[in-house]
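Session log. Operator J.P. requested a structure for one protein chain; no other inputs attached. Running the standard single-chain path with token output.
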Amino acid sequence: MIEEILHTKETGYYDVVVCGGGIAGISAAVAAARHGAKVLLLEREYALGGLATLGLVTIYLPLCDGTGRQVCFGLAEELLRLSISNGIEDLYCPEWLESGSEEERKKTRFQVRYNPYVFAIEAEKLLRKEGVNLLYGSFVVSVLKKENRITHVIIENKSGRSAVAVGNVIDATGDADICVFAGEDTELFGQGNIPASWYYYTQDSSFNLNMLGFCDIPDSQKTEEQLQNDKSSLRFSGVGAEDLTAFTIFSHGELLADFLKDGKDSPEHALSSIAMIPQVRMTRRLNGKYVQDEDEMHKEFSDSVGLFPDWRKRGPVYELPFGTLYGKTENLIVAGRHISVTDSMWDITRVIPVCAVSGQAAGTAAAICSNFSKIDISRLQKLLSKDGVVLHERQL
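Structure written below.
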């Protein structure tokens, strides 16, 4: 162990610091800024969107329940429409985007596929328009706490090491990194991530997405045959530097081999884009005030802050309880794929619509209170409703 003495300069104060610029972080930052907070968004890469853009997972999964009812509203819908504001790649659904009858909407789901780079830049423009301060290339490496509150977020970037004083912190890292720094109770996804290597290629003047590899489902939902076949599968936790490096190297090799099966690189057959971040989906999550489970579909929660469907099948609708967004630290709230859920629920809540719903709730809450365990939930719900969010399934 090497003892290191650091003198870190404090560089300013923000009402809300959002750590992570994926869909959840974008939603949280926009919501907090729209409710009057001075907001800083920290992103370690040099583009926004996380897996949804840099990870090339470019399917904005459904905002509807598959039976003709839209269930995700507010920023979840706003960002979907923003993602295709300059054109659409695939899955255009006029029944939802224009005017369709209920019967027509029952036949197709409210989802789209967008261009990742256009979406990333449009998201950046939105944040700037709302007055959000943005720092790219910035890693959160630690937090300072006094009693049960985070007082500073410690960051490192091209300018060096600095401390930002905070009112509230939103962990939108996707991996519950800030929760770990703050001493929250967290859990790893025990079975790990199967490699994925999505990439774009050009073939005969056509720009195509190849979804090589896929997200695994929880072991509890597998047949005996699936479990047997999985025994030899490579698995990655997604939370360590060496592990993520191995994941990336393996994925790169699989990707190149797959691309070259149809011929060498040429003007007619070109490798256009590869993921700039590892395509891990479920890594580490908060074990918060409330842990939501998959069997709680259609259950009403008094502290609901939004609705979401099951992207994998038609019918289920879930209310998102506020208790899934916070733990023990007074001024720390989470948003995105690492909210407090069971393993079986994780595959449902890790996707873009739920990230947007939880992000809007977290950002709005961070703008109006200083202790999330003592929040005026009625006030928060009124603000979310005013911003277009539907809170309970009975209101659809």
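Operator note: The mean pLDDT is 94.
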